[in-house]
């Protein structure tokens, strides 16, 4: 932790359950991820697949990625360990409450419209 502080990096930790992560935990983690004041950011869980994949999948939904692209990215990193339950969580996750949040700096504001 001291090395992170010396490098000027912040650390946010969420006590994760072994398998199922409550939606509220994802919402709180997304608030940290969406706020550019916390960037650059590294997202990681114990193995870097399931909980990380769910969080990033929910972020991609907020970034308006199509589900097939979200699932492709998830499966690429989870590989043989991909879980249908994770993909179902991503698909069913309610992003509407997060769409109402405003941040002084948000990674969602930078998306450029295609001509």
From TrEMBL:
Every Tyrosine specific protein phosphatases domain range: 24-56
Single Gene Ontology MF annotation: inositol-1,5-bisdiphosphate-2,3,4,6-tetrakisphosphate 5-diphosphatase activity
Highest rank taxon of the organism: Eukaryota
UniProt GO cellular component terms: cytoplasm
PROSITE patterns: TYR_PHOSPHATASE_1 (PS00383), TYR_PHOSPHATASE_2 (PS50056)
Pfam families for the chain: Y_phosphatase2
Record-linked PANTHER family: TYROSINE-PROTEIN PHOSPHATASE, TYROSINE-PROTEIN PHOSPHATASE DOMAIN-CONTAINING PROTEIN
Protein name (Swiss-Prot/TrEMBL): Tyrosine specific protein phosphatases domain-containing protein
């Amino acid at each position: 932790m001291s090395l992170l502080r010396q490098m000027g990096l912040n650390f946010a930790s969420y006590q994760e359950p072994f398998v199922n992560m409550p939606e509220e935990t994802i919402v709180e983690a997304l608030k940290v991820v969406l706020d550019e004041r916390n960037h650059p950011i590294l997202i990681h869980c114990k193995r870097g697949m399931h909980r990380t994949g769910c969080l990033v999948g929910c972020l991609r939904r907020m970034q308006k990625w199509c589900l097939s692209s979200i699932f492709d990215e998830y499966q690429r990193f989870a590989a043989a360990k991909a879980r249908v339950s994770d993909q179902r969580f991503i698909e069913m996750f309610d992003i509407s409450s997060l769409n109402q949040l405003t941040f002084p700096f948000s990674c969602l504001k930078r998306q450029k419209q295609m001509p």
